[in-house]
Amino acid sequence: IDLRKGYEEIINLFVTKEEKHKYKVIEGKAQDKSLDIGNNFDLVFTSPPYRGFEEYSKDKSQSMEEFPLLKDWIDGFILGMVDNWIPRIKKGGYFAININDPGGNFKGKEAFTVKVVKAISSDKRLSYKGVIGYAEGTQNKLRLAQPIWIWKID
């Protein structure tokens, strides 16, 4: 799936012509420290694929293909991404991740999201601030509720 076109459409929809020079789509792996992305962010927000639910492609560059086991995916992809992005966020800035457990039937197992949140929270540069949510629909008829987990850079 080519996500670049969608990201460019978002910029075109929300950004004025005068401000477009401030935005660019950078393609690459989130855990790749060689990406030319700068290091002066107030906020980094990410929404990686929901493991076992969202799959962009079977390409070997995809995180679930590169790290097929859950522990390796958390250590190599999620924590690799955190390790790459945290130094790029200003002190006092925030790291936020939208990640959820599709299905939710764990039968005594620790939920995937809990494992990810615990792993990120183990980074001493971060302090966990909480979770907010968003959902489609109206106040009385919400659907597809999603959590956004938030940490502050100390």
General description of the model:
The protein starts with a helix and ends with a strand. By secondary structure, it is α+β, with helices and mostly antiparallel strands. The protein has four helices and four strands; from the N terminus they run H-E-H-H-E-H-E-E. A four-stranded mixed β-sheet has the order 1-2-4-3. The protein has helices at 4-14, 63-66, 70-85, 112-121; strands at 41-46, 89-98, 126-138, 141-153.
Please state roughly what percent of the residues sit in beta strands, choosing from under 5%, 5-15%, 15-25%, 25-35%, 35-45% or over 45%. 25-35%
* Most strands sheet: 4 strands, mixed
Query: Which secondary-structure class do the elements indicate?
Result: alpha+beta
End-to-end C-alpha gap: 36 Å
How many beta strands in the DSSP annotation? 4
The strand line-up of the biggest sheet is 1-2-4-3
- Count every helix, treating DSSP H or I runs of 4 or more residues as helices: 4
Radius of gyration: 17 Å
Q: What percent of residues adopt helix (DSSP H or I)? A: 25-40%
Rounded average pLDDT = 84
